[in-house]
Automatic annotation (TrEMBL), chain A:
Domain Aldehyde oxidase/xanthine dehydrogenase a/b hammerhead: 32-138
GO molecular function: iron ion binding; oxidoreductase activity
A Pfam family reported for this protein in Swiss-Prot or TrEMBL: Ald_Xan_dh_C
NCBIfam families: peri_hyde_PaoC
Protein name: Molybdopterin-dependent oxidoreductase
Gene3D superfamilies reported in the protein's UniProt record: Aldehyde oxidase/xanthine dehydrogenase, a/b hammerhead, Aldehyde oxidase/xanthine dehydrogenase, molybdopterin binding domain
InterPro entries linked to this entry: Ald_Oxase/Xan_DH_a/b, Ald_Oxase/Xan_DH_a/b_sf, Ald_Oxase/xanthine_DH-like, AldOxase/xan_DH_MoCoBD1, AldOxase/xan_DH_MoCoBD2, AldOxase/xan_DH_Mopterin-bd_sf, PaoC-like
From TrEMBL, chain B:
Molecular function terms from GO: FAD binding; oxidoreductase activity
The keyword Flavoprotein is annotated on this UniProt entry: yes
Domain FAD-binding PCMH-type positions: 1-223
Protein name: Xanthine dehydrogenase family protein subunit M
Protein keywords: FAD, Flavoprotein
Length: 730, 316
């Protein structure tokens, strides 16, 4: 089914299941510890052996020798796949750093061996007996040093460069100007469940039970990496303990498990141990950003430019922090550019809201700074510069955009009027207290997605699709969609996900999963409606589904009478979207306290008011947003992969030293969804929210810290050591 | 993790004898730090002597009016003890500022004193480390050192002692009681328990091989206002950037010890004599010989400001 908008399906006039806060249908499995996550799938294949991946001890160079003798003789060892004895694997469109690259080392902790043994402990002990000698080479690890030679991005997720009008001239002549630099560090996904795979061969057929956000990409990648046909591969990933973009792509766990299973001639399970997650897998690249804003005396933006420098092992695509700037504020003369340089650090790749998450940390602080220069309230400054159409492409209309409402309603709910514009003027005991605001933008991409819906003959239905649930609630919104379309109560719908044997879905990433995959289920239901209508001789235009019955042409037939009818459907999105700027928007608010003595920053409360289409399940959507706000707190106040520029690796590669927020950091969060269905987005008028929540709370926190202290830290994370010299005398 | 043998000892002297008699043997109690280090093969004991059956899990009153804490008393139990909360609140506050509830349930008094540094280079076996492998060199010296030591460090090691409990114990002038492999007992003042690294960063405490901590003794209570302020980037479950333990008396005198600064809890008695003059005088004196790096120079200002906050609140 091709969707060309605007959507006007009758089921949306009075939805009974969609849009209702609904507890996760997979919740009981998770709370009882019975949801089968990749590493614990003991029942899928017998005789599983344990693989342990050894990571390279240098960042760049060659392995000259690996002494495997002691490891081979170690108790329980079944097989060893080692870089000196095995050809490097191939690559794929989705992987840049080698997942198993033979003797050549491209980054620290690159997989150089997998030891297979009868127990995990035996595999780990044997892996530690491998002695590897290297011939290291010099590498490039210092972004700031090489940024000046960076070139425009070649790949990546957005426009590498965009121009409208004459930015330089207009900026040069502007009455008020801001020109500031901001930096964001490398960050790790640090998801709860590390990458894990069980691999088994049956002749030339490979099955991987794994933890992956994108089943079909995974299948294609494995085929390309292992040089086997796609149709010989099955990927199964029904439950995923967090991904945040780190599991969009096949990683070394799957590749090494497949190679090890072949060598061991039996199924092998591999989990990447926590210290490998930070350097072996992908990360969000650091950025250096420059934002320039020129306004007239009244604060109308006339010129705006956002540039970004980042690095990556590819030298091709980096972290494009300018991504939101083309969408957010008015201004006739404008420019964005994203430059990237080659670095020999581990591979940079997508992490929750790639580009936009760090982009707001630059742009939305610059907006705050500009408002202050103008003596304007930062909400009013934003509203004054709200564009009528997409600012970088004025011919593109907004489908639905309620950013001003987000800011206004958020301001009222948060008590913004109590904010003191003059920084460092509110105290509460030893705490300096401040409020901050940020606007938020994240695109609302959709992509084609298919599903199969089958009646079970007993009055229920089953949905199968290779869509994934990465903790987001996909199971539930898919069940809600099918229940709504088929006139069934939620408990009559079962959902099976994550198997490459099922129709190919959008997968989970880029905030496209919820909107796209439910549209695919909708398409399958419409196909099923047609089959049923045909079978019963009812006009498909008038057929209705209510309370487990089909109604039309004077007939009322229970679904249980229809046998095991099934239909597969696919949603595809037509070109009409090119004429629209379809996004999600938010007003983010934060209040912080800063200890006047120590400079410790503690969040007191956060609010997000979101405009993100029809909210399919407010309960799980809220969970998505508060999770993203929490991640934003981490990005702003603590998360940083520390680069050792001598050895070329991320030093703090465990969860004791790479700090992410804990409960005590997040005292109070509130999320409000505006009721703003977008008929141009999908048939269900839905959009994603999972990434909107991390676009802006960062800057709201940073702006609150400034409001509390009068200290502007432009190098994230904002930690006390960067403020201590400017804190008030004690 | 290397293979090891395991036994459970029924008394401290039996445990000490077993460890002393077995090359490569170590004690294990809660194991909250040792097991992590064994998984990374930073610790490679050949034999573990489990001391959990030695019965040293009581807190007793001493004739001098203090407390004698068995080595197996968990962090949770010690910090919750009514006598500790009443008379040694700085100890309760220090313990509860550390780790997480689950870890404190498992961690013991003796084991906590022996936790090893959190220097990230110590934790990565690919990196040179004099503490892990004497003579290997130190990757931290010119590396990422934000968390590392500013005083009492040496040319061979700049790591810190990471714990909280010991900072309070140092402030309270606790005494560590031990038993050696030959059955003899001794008492080690806490000030002498942790060593400065010097040329031997692999030697971290005054304990001899096979010597087991049996008790920690607290002298009679000090009175005064008890404060433990642990400064960190996140609100919980993080090691201290700087921590300050203090007991402040109504006349403005008192004691102060610092964590996160040095290879051991850092208390300089001549410096704390300057408490009535304010935080600046104390910190200047206590850290007169500091050798900070550019990454961790802020710790000196932070220590002073943290103490200033404590003094201001003690006065109010």
């Amino acid at each position: 089914m091709e969707f060309n908008g605007p959507s006007q399906d009758a089921i949306l006039t009075d939805p009974k299941v969609i849009g209702k806060s609904t507890r996760r249908i997979d919740g009981p499995l998770k709370t009882t510890g019975t949801a089968p996550y990749a590493y614990e799938r003991h029942d899928v294949v017998p005789n599983q052996a344990y693989g342990y991946v050894l990571g390279a001890g240098i960042a760049k160079g060659r392995i000259t020798a690996m002494n495997l003798e002691d490891a081979r003789k170690a108790p329980g060892v079944i097989a060893i796949v080692a870089a000196t004895e095995h050809e490097p694997v191939g690559s794929s469109d989705f992987n840049h750093a080698p997942l198993f690259g033979g003797r050549k080392i491209a980054h620290y902790h690159q997989a150089i061996a997998c030891v297979v043994a009868e127990t995990f402990e035996e595999a780990r002990a044997a892996a530690a007996m491998i002695r590897t000698s290297y011939e290291p080479e010099d590498g490039t690890y210092d972004l700031a040093k090489v940024a000046p030679s960076a070139e425009l991005e070649k790949g990546g997720w957005g426009d590498a460069r965009s121009d409208r009008g004459d930015f330089e001239a207009t900026f040069g002549a502007a009455a008020e100007k801001l020109d500031q630099h901001y930096t964001t560090p490398d960050e790790s996904h640090a998801m709860m469940e590390p990458m894990a795979t069980i691999a088994a061969w049956d002749g030339d057929r490979l099955t991987v039970w794994t933890s992956n956000q994108m089943i079909n990409w995974g299948k294609e990648s494995l085929a390309s990496i292992l040089s086997i046909p796609e149709d010989k591969i099955r990927v199964d990933s029904p439950y995923i303990g967090g991904g945040f973009g780190g599991k969009l792509f096949v990683r070394a766990d799957a590749v090494m498990a497949a190679l090890a299973a072949k060598a061991a001639k039996r199924p092998v399970k591999v989990m990447l141990q926590r210290p490998l997650i930070f350097n072996n897998t992908t990360h969000r690249p650091a950025t250096i950003q420059r934002v320039r804003i020129g306004t007239d005396k009244q604060g109308r933006i006339q010129a705006i430019a956002h540039e970004c420098w980042s690095g990556n092992i590819t030298g091709q695509d980096g972290e494009n922090a300018t991504a939101q700037t083309n969408h957010m504020y008015a201004g006739d003369d404008r420019m964005t550019a994203s430059y990237v340089t080659q670095l020999d650090l581990p591979e940079g790749n997508a992490m929750r809201a790639p580009g936009e998450a760090p982009g707001h940390m630059g742009l939305e602080v610059a907006i705050d700074e500009m408002a202050e220069k103008l003596g304007m309230d930062p909400i009013e400054f934003r509203i004054l510069n709200e564009p009528k159409t997409m600012p970088a492409h004025p011919d593109r209309k907004f489908s639905e955009r309620h950013l001003v409402r987000c800011l206004r309603e958020g301001g009222e709910r948060f008590g913004w009027s109590k904010r003191q514009a003059k920084p460092a003027s509110v105290s509460d005991g030893r705490w300096l207290v401040g409020m901050g605001v940020s606007a938020g933008f994240r695109g609302a991409p959709t992509t084609k997605s298919a599903a199969r819906v089958a009646l079970d003959g007993n009055g229920g239905a089953k949905v199968t699709t290779d869509m994934t649930d990465i903790g987001t609630g996909s199971y539930t919104i898919i069940a809600q969609t099918a229940a709504e379309c088929l006139g069934l109560p939620l408990e009559k719908v079962s959902v099976v996900l994550g198997d490459s044997a099922f129709p190919v879905s959008s997968g989970s990433g880029g905030q496209w999963g919820a909107a796209s995959s439910t549209a695919g289920v909708y398409a399958a239901c419409i196909e099923l409606h047609r089959s049923i209508a045909q079978k019963l001789g009812i006009d498909p235009q008038t057929i209705r589904f209510e309370d487990g019955r089909v109604i039309g042409a004077g007939k009322t037939v229970p679904l249980s009478d229809l046998g095991q009818l099934a239909a597969t459907g696919e949603i595809d999105f037509g070109d009409y979207k090119k004429g629209y700027d379809i996004g999600t928007y938010a007003g983010h608010f934060c209040e912080v306290g800063v200890d006047r003595y120590t400079g410790e920053i503690r969040i007191r409360r956060m609010l997000a008011v979101c405009d993100a289409g029809r909210i399919l399940n407010p309960l799980s959507a809220r969970s998505q947003v508060i999770g993203a706000m929490t991640m934003a707190a981490g990005a702003t106040l603590m998360e940083e992969l520390a680069v050792d520029k001598r050895f070329g690796y991320f030093v703090n590669h465990d969860l004791a030293s790479y700090e992410v927020p804990v409960h005590a950091d997040i005292p109070h969060q509130e999320v409000v969804f505006l009721d703003t269905p977008d008929p141009y987005s999908t048939p269900l008028q839905a959009k994603g929210v999972g990434e909107l929540g991390i676009c802006g709370p960062t800057a709201a926190i940073a702006n609150a810290v400034y409001n509390a202290t009068g200290i502007r830290v432009r190098e994230y994370p904002i930690t006390l050591d960067k403020m201590i010299d400017q804190l008030p005398q004690v | 993790m290397r293979s090891f043998t395991y036994q459970r000892a029924e008394s401290a002297s039996q445990a000490a004898a077993a460890v002393a008699a077995t090359p490569g043997a170590k004690f294990i109690a809660g194991g909250t730090n040792l097991l992590d280090l064994m998984k990374l093969e930073i610790e490679t004991p050949t034999h573990l002597v489990d001391v959990q059956d030695t019965g040293l899990d009581r807190i007793e009153d001493t004739p001098e009016g203090g407390l004698r804490i068995g080595t197996l008393v968990s962090n949770t139990a010690l910090s919750a003890d009514q006598r500790v909360r009443r008379d040694y609140a700085v100890l309760t506050r220090a313990i509860q500022a550390g780790a997480s509830g689950q870890l404190r349930n498992k961690a013991t008094t003796g084991g906590n004193l022996l936790q090893r540094t959190r220097c990230p280079y110590f934790y990565d076996p690919n990196m040179p480390c004099n503490k892990r492998k004497p003579g290997d060199g130190c990757a931290a010296m010119k590396g990422y050192s934000r968390q590392l030591g500013v005083i009492g460090t040496s040319e061979s090691c700049i790591a810190t002692y990471p714990g909280d409990m010991a900072v309070a114990l140092r402030l309270l002038d606790a005494v560590v009681e031990t038993v050696k492999g030959d059955g003899t007992a001794r008492s080690i003042p806490i000030a002498d328990f942790h060593r400065l690294w010097g040329d031997h960063p692999e030697r971290e405490t005054a304990l001899e091989p096979g010597e087991m901590i049996t008790h920690v003794v607290l002298p009679k209570p000090l009175g005064g206002k008890h404060v433990y302020h642990k400064v960190r980037d996140r609100a919980s479950y993080a090691f201290a950037l700087v921590s300050v333990a203090a007991v402040i008396q109504p006349d403005g005198t008192g004691r102060v010890a610092f964590g996160g600064m040095a290879p051991k809890p850092w208390r300089v008695e001549e410096a704390e004599a300057l408490l009535p003059q304010g935080a600046s005088a104390v910190v200047k004196r206590a850290f007169a010989n500091a050798k900070p790096r550019s990454d961790n120079r802020f710790k000196l200002a932070l220590a002073e400001r943290t103490l200033a906050g404590i003094l201001a609140e003690a006065r109010s």
